[in-house]
Amino acid sequence: MKSLSLLINCVIVLALTVNHDSMAIDNFAIEFKGDGKTRVIAPDSDSLDITGNLTMEAWVFPTATSGSAIIVNKENSWECALQSNILKAAIKAAEWAWHGGGEVPLNKWTFVAVTFDKKEHHTFVNGKYEASRANQGKIQPTDEAFHVGWRPCCNNEPFTGIIDEVRISNVSRYQKNKNFAVPNREFTPDGNTIVLYHFNEGKGQKAKDTSKFKNDGELDGGAKFVKSKAPIKFAAVEPEDKLTTMWAQIKAYP
Ligand SMILES: [Ca+2]
Ligand SMILES: [Ca+2]
Questions:
Q1: Closest by alpha carbon to 173, among 44, 70, 50, 90?
Q2: Does residue 117 have a pLDDT over 50?
Q3: Alpha carbon of 182 to ligand 2 centroid (Å)
Q4: pTM
Q5: Distance between Cα 47 and ligand 2 center (Å)
Q6: What pLDDT is recorded for position 203?
Q7: How much distance in Å is there from the Cα of 29 to the middle of ligand 2?
């Protein structure tokens, strides 16, 4: 009996291993044409009405310089963009104006982050602290939709290039004057994650939000999935992951 159960275990483990390999999903991202139509859009929601601490992050691969190329936008509330290749943000607290710092080159993958702590907003490029701007108070919430690569204002300030791994959080994840290690894996959602798009669907029109708030996006105006070469591995296997759970069950098998 013991050798039989051992054999069964081996077969199950082999099956899981094969299954896991065949799941070898490709990494995808979204390509934006910069034509004023291409966007990812998610409807307004209570969770998107962030009024306190905030972090906006993404991997970006711009292919053209423009006066303003939106990365993420919640109009009249918070947004960040590349303006002549410089990372900037506008957050509607004491002021609604573009400020920032940190150069983002064309045709390279760069990790950009903006944080707000109700006193200032801060920009970070590839984990390096770049600039701060005083902007006291709470952020004004709006009923506007959430967008990637586009804004419903100002000739849309469209992004040209590829964007991957968009995360919006209601916490300030990085601090003024402090650098941090560039993430080498996809993020996993935590309690402060409001939006997390891996964009790994690869086809169709839906961008699934892996946060608990389900701010799913829709690809619109010709936005399309393309293979991503952003230098990140897939998210670490989470404890609640099915494979891990099954593995624990197998190990518990007498
Ligand atoms: Ca709202
Ligand atoms: Ca991706």
A1: 50
A2: yes
A3: 16
A4: 0.86
A5: 23
A6: 96
A7: 5
